[in-house]
Every structure is written in structure tokens, then in C-alpha cells.
Write a structure and sequence with these properties.
By secondary structure, this protein is of the alpha/beta class. 41% of the residues lie in helices and 14% in strands. GO terms for molecular function: S-adenosylmethionine-dependent methyltransferase activity.
């Protein structure tokens, strides 16, 4: 009896203690001050406008309903709607919806429309990368049975190109009508000779890199035309160079590939499709010049910085501009990168255009800091 009463008494004390503790916690919770409301971070107006533009583009591309489609407004192609749901579409594409609709208006699982000019126009207008398509791309009707292993063949195989869109129907015709772009031997000589301070022979560049204990294995040649610089680096130094090039009035991408090299069908205004800090060398050929809008050029140089490893090289080959612009605009722009000047040579551009506009050439080799 006494044991039972004692046990009941202990249980009563435990229950009272539990209630007291619960009341204490409840009162603490009620009396504790409320946390301050989160502070809203202001969003810049220009960012809001950009987000609205992207949202409008997505809405335009994905809007597809019978109630909103009128007789004079063509329906959005089905595969464009499908692709917009599974993959990105560049925001600049919304500036050219008619061209984009034409590009994506095809019959799935059949032959793709042959539209290289349409693709080139979209890419050059910033609609890049283009959406993927579920169709079979056209190939040359009589492909060659053997491709040259030497990147400096006697002739490039005509059968590697679909010539329909070009006025020339062979590489021999291109050589005759566009020798600057397709005379491979002349291009080779120009990259190996030294006639003025503007020239930097490939072997001299490699000596500069070696003297600085720099290894050159991988690189990108921006605006590299038919890939002659990449070819020289491959056969003499076993360096792998990617060549960015566009098919403007000639099959430059096919020419690069026919030489056993890697073409990148990428315009100057687009992000280089390689990972950060992986390249030993980026060379900007003569396609990089004063005709490029300044914001595009500035973003391009910082993208070059992104892909170069610490200690890598930026080689600017015969960049031309007005002398006053080089001094006041382009030299400060390049200087912002904080690279070491290995070579910096400036000389007058003596052709009629150069004399008329007071233009100069710049050849520069700059080395990225090893660490930031």
C-alpha cells in the first residue's frame, strides 16, 4: 500500500514538472521577438528589362493554341515548341521569329531542308546555338573514298563539299577567285617568314614560349579561315588547335575538316565552347579588327581570358584600326586584362584604305598571369 502511494506520488510530481517545463517553453516562444522581415534586394532596371525580353521570347516561341492562331499568323512549328521545353533557345532568336520558324519548319525523321544560308544568317544575328532538329542533314552525293592525311595536300577534295549555294563549284575556282582565303601555300609562307616587326613566325613564337618554360599543347585560332595556322601547329609541333570559322561566301568549315583539322562553326560574338582555364594559346587572326563593335570585342577578350590557363598566351596577329583608336580605345581595352607584354609591334597600314583612314597594324603576344 505504502509502495503504491509512493509510486503515485512520484508520477504526480513528474507530471507536474513536465507541465511546468511546457508552460515555460510556451511562454518563451510567445514572448520572443519576431525576426525582422527579409530586406528586399533591389534589382537593376536593365536586368529586369533583359529578363522581360527573355520571358517574352519564350512566351512567343511556346505559344501555340488554335484560339490564338489567325489566318495571317502562321503556327509555331511543333518541333520548335518541343525543343523549347527540353533545351535552351538563345534569347536573340526572338528578334528573328520568322527565320527561326522557317528553320524549324520541317518533317521530323526525314531529310532536313537544305538551308545553310538560313542557318548562317541566324547564327550571325546571335541566334546561336541553333536548336537541334530531328531530321537527316544532307551530305555530298559522291563522297571521296580517301581524305588527305597531310594538312597541306596538293588539292582539297571537291567531293567533300555541297556546292549548291556557291558561285564556285570547286576549290580550284576558289583558289583562282579568292587566293587570300584558299591559297594554302601562300598562307603557310606568311606564317613562317619574317619581313617586319609585324611578323611573328610560328617557330619564333614557340621559341618565346619555350624560353619562358611554357608548354603549348592546346589552343584556339579565332577567325582562322581555312585552318592554315592550325595545320602548321599540328605538323611541326603536334599542337591541337581548334579553328573558329564561318561559311561566308565559301566553304571554310569543310576546308578545315578536309585537312584533318577541327572547325568550330562559331561567330565572333558567341562564347567559346571550351571549359575555363584549359587552353595554352588563343590566336586572333585578321578577322578580329576594328569592324567588330567595341562591346563585342571587349566580351570576346574576357572570354579568351576565361579559357586560357594561367601563363597561357593571347596572340593578336595584325589587328588593324585607326591609329588614334588604337591609342585611345583598343590599347586600354587590352591593358585591362593585366597581361605581360611579350611582343607589341605597331606599323602603318600602307594599302589605299589604310592611308586614307590613318590605319595601323598591331601584332601582340601577351601572357596571362600565372595566378590571379
Amino acid at each position: 500500500m505504502g509502495f503504491t502511494m509512493g509510486l503515485n506520488f512520484v508520477l504526480l510530481l513528474a507530471m507536474v514538472a513536465t507541465n511546468i517545463v511546457s508552460l515555460y517553453h510556451l511562454s518563451t516562444t510567445v514572448q520572443s521577438p519576431k525576426p525582422p522581415p527579409p530586406v528586399a534586394i533591389p534589382i537593376p532596371e536593365h536586368l529586369i528589362r533583359q529578363l522581360n525580353d527573355i520571358r517574352a521570347a519564350i512566351n512567343h516561341l511556346t505559344r501555340h493554341s488554335s484560339s490564338s492562331t489567325s489566318a495571317d499568323t502562321p503556327a509555331v512549328p511543333r518541333d520548335l515548341i518541343l525543343h523549347s521545353q527540353i533545351g535552351p533557345i538563345a534569347s536573340s532568336c526572338h528578334h528573328h521569329p520568322d527565320l527561326l520558324h522557317r528553320y524549324m519548319n520541317y518533317t521530323p525523321f526525314s531529310a532536313c531542308p537544305y538551308d545553310p544560308d538560313l542557318q548562317e544568317t541566324l547564327i550571325l544575328n546571335g541566334c546561336h546555338p541553333l536548336p537541334r532538329r530531328r531530321c537527316f542533314s544532307k551530305t555530298p552525293s559522291k563522297p571521296t573514298s580517301s581524305l588527305p592525311l597531310n594538312p597541306f595536300p596538293t588539292t582539297l577534295p571537291d567531293s567533300s563539299v555541297i556546292w549548291n549555294k556557291y558561285s564556285c563549284k570547286s576549290f580550284a575556282c576558289l583558289l583562282q577567285n579568292n587566293p587570300i582565303g584558299f591559297d594554302l601555300n601562300t598562307q603557310r609562307s606568311s606564317l613562317l617568314k619574317y619581313t617586319s616587326d609585324l611578323d611573328l613566325p610560328v617557330n619564333r613564337f614557340m621559341q618565346l614560349a619555350k624560353s619562358a618554360n611554357s608548354v603549348i599543347r592546346l589552343g584556339i585560332d579565332i577567325g582562322g579561315g581555312t585552318g592554315t595556322f592550325a595545320a602548321l601547329m599540328k605538323i611541326f609541333y603536334n599542337v591541337t588547335m581548334l579553328t573558329t570559322t564561318m561559311n561566308v561566301n565559301a566553304p571554310y568549315n569543310e576546308a578545315v575538316a578536309a585537312r584533318g583539322l577541327v572547325p568550330l562553326h562559331v561567330p565572333l560574338q558567341q562564347r567559346l565552347p571550351v571549359f575555363d582555364g584549359t587552353m595554352d594559346l588563343v590566336r586572333c587572326g585578321r578577322a578580329v579588327n576594328r569592324w567588330i563593335p567595341l562591346p563585342v570585342m571587349e566580351f570576346m577578350f574576357y572570354d579568351v581570358d576565361r579559357v586560357l590557363r594561367g601563363g597561357g598566351y593571347l596572340w593578336v596577329d595584325r589587328f588593324f584600326s585607326k591609329a588614334v583608336d588604337l591609342e585611345n580605345v583598343y590599347e586600354p581595352l587590352i591593358g585591362k586584362l593585366g597581361y605581360k607584354r611579350v611582343k607589341w609591334a605597331v606599323a602603318n597600314k600602307t594599302d589605299p584604305s589604310g592611308l586614307k583612314n590613318g590605319e595601323v597594324y598591331l601584332t601582340a603576344v601577351l601572357q596571362k598571369p600565372v595566378s590571379r
